[in-house]
Amino acid sequence: MMNEHIAIVGAGLIGRAWAIVFARAGCTVAIYDAAPEALAGCDRLLHENISDLALHGLILEAPDLVLGRIRPVATLAAALQGAALVQENVRETIEAKRAIFAEMDALTAPDTILASSTSWLMASEFSEGLRGRHRMLVGHPVNPPYLVPLVEIAPAPWTSAAAVERARDIYTRAGQSPVLLKKEITGFLLNRIQGAVLNEALNLYADGYASVEDLDKVLKDGLGLRWSFMGPFETIDLNAPEGVVDYAKRYGPTYRDVARTQLPNAWTSELLTKIEAERRTVLTSDQLAERARWRDNRLMALVAHQRKQAR
Ligand SMILES: NC(=O)c1ccc[n+]([C@@H]2O[C@H](COP(=O)([O-])OP(=O)(O)OC[C@H]3O[C@@H](n4cnc5c(N)ncnc54)[C@H](O)[C@@H]3O)[C@@H](O)[C@H]2O)c1
After folding, report:
1. What is the pLDDT of residues 106-164, one digit of tens each?
2. Of ligand 1's atoms, which has the minimum distance to the CA of residue 32?
3. Where does CATH 1.10.1040.10 sit in the chain?
């Protein structure tokens, strides 16, 4: 069990989910939000999520024990007091990130790790010019991090190797699966790869090759099955008798030719409206929330299954 103290700044969807990750691992967690109503609603929402995890066997302690390690606090200074790592989750604008990192820099000990959950901003954009920029980095989670363990650690050029190592160690011991970006790039790794898949799906739909439903099936009944336990490089290493180079000899030229035809999609509102209309024929608007709960339960069942498998 971990015994570090962790601070969570921003008690929205992602902040609350991070609080569960660290409390489940044994940390004491202080959670702060600038909006009093966000803090006030925190306990009830956390309780719901933690109880669901317990039902799926994804939390082995009593839910109240885990919840008891999370303390909503009314000021930023009180939340940051004694934290080994601060996970920032305020809204996604460069101004908001710059302001909160400047405040956190002034309020924390020089070796406290200051990590941002930002989905798209680079650490160099919000930490430049700050005295403690050597301990600032991005720790980008996937929603919700208590089910999906990947964390993309994306340091700025000036982030110290020691800070990166400490962040990686804390995330790993908290049960997450960190990956390290060797240099900064917009969208990090996951959203760039997700973007490439979406781009191609949009193009194939726009050019009339298949329906929305069938394109979704390509992932859920095809590629996605394997992708839940191995990535594209391991896939091609195993899909030709002699490995990666053998695979590339057989199929590389065709992939290269196809890649030349894979152009950027413009994401026009006309195209997206058509796609949404197809979705509404299988799922009406008033069924969206219920289907999101179904998704969460499927994900929990999958994670529970994966925990029993050899990695
Ligand atoms: N939602 C996702 O799927 C997802 C996934 C990965 C990363 N992220 C990133 O996580 C961050 C938070 O996203 P979210 O979906 O939880 O948003 P959210 O709107 O649910 O929560 C943001 C919270 O921050 C609070 N806040 C705003 N300014 C603050 C300040 N100065 N100090 C303290 N609290 C403040 C708001 O009151 C709000 O409760 C964003 O940077 C987002 O890009 C989101």
Report:
1. 999 999 999 999 999 999 999 999 999 999 999 999 999 999 999 999 999 999 999 99
2. 33
3. 190-307
Q: Which fold has domain 190-307?
A: N-(1-d-carboxylethyl)-l-norvaline Dehydrogenase; domain 2 (1.10.1040)
How much is the pLDDT for 251?
A: 98
Virtual CA dihedral for 196, 202, 207, 210, nearest 10 degrees?
110
Q: What's this model's pTM, rounded to 2 decimal places?
A: 0.96
Of 3.50.50.60, 3.40.50.720, 3.30.465.10, 3.30.450.20, the CATH number of 5-180 is 3.40.50.720
pLDDT tens track for 87-98? 999 999 999 999
pLDDT in the model for residue 311: 81
Task: Tell me how far apart the alpha carbons of residues 114 and 133 are, in angstroms, rounded to a whole number.
Answer: 9
The count of other CB atoms within 10 Å of the CB of residue 142 is 19
- Residues written for the chain: 311
What spacing in Å lies between the alpha carbon of 117 and ligand 1's midpoint?
8
Sign of the alpha-carbon torsion through 87, 48, 145, 192: negative
List where CATH 3.40.50.720 sits in the chain.
5-180
- Average pLDDT score over the chain: 97
Give the Å distance between the CA of 257 and the centre of ligand 1.
41
Is 90 exceeded by the pLDDT of residue 281? yes
- C-alpha dihedral (49, 55, 59, 63), degrees to nearest 10: 60
For residue 35, give the ligand 1 atom closest to its CA: 37
pLDDT value at 244 more than 90? yes
Smallest CA separation from ligand 1 atom 18, residue = 12
Cβ of 14 closer than 6 Å to ligand 1, yes or no, is yes
pLDDT at 2: 95
